[in-house]
Amino acid sequence: MAIAKADINLCKGCRLCVGACPVDAIEPLHEVNKKGYEIIRIDENKCIGCGMCYVMCPDYVFTVE
Ligand code: SF4
Ligand code: SF4
Predict the structure, then answer these.
(1) Where are the domains of the chain?
(2) Is the domain 4-64 a CATH 3.40.1350.10 member?
(3) Is 13 touching ligand 1 by the criterion CB < 6 Å?
(4) pLDDT at 12 over 90
C-alpha cells in the first residue's frame, strides 16, 4: 500500500497538512528542523496513502510511495 514520506527539512511549519489528513496520521511536533521550523511526523501505521498531504503542502515536503 502507498505510504506518504516527508522530507522534514523542507517543512515550514504551517500545519496545513495536519488538518488535511483524513485519518489523523500527521502529528505536529515541537521539534524543529535545520531551518528552525516546527516539523510534523507521519504515523505510517495510520497512513492510507491518499495523497492529500502531497496536494496541500505548499513546500513539497511529501512524496507518496
Ligand atoms: S503542509 Fe508542508 S510545510 Fe506545512 S507543516 Fe505540513 S509538511 Fe510542513
Ligand atoms: S497520504 Fe493521506 S493518509 Fe497518508 S499522511 Fe498523507 S494525508 Fe494522511
Answers:
(1) 4-64
(2) no
(3) yes
(4) yes
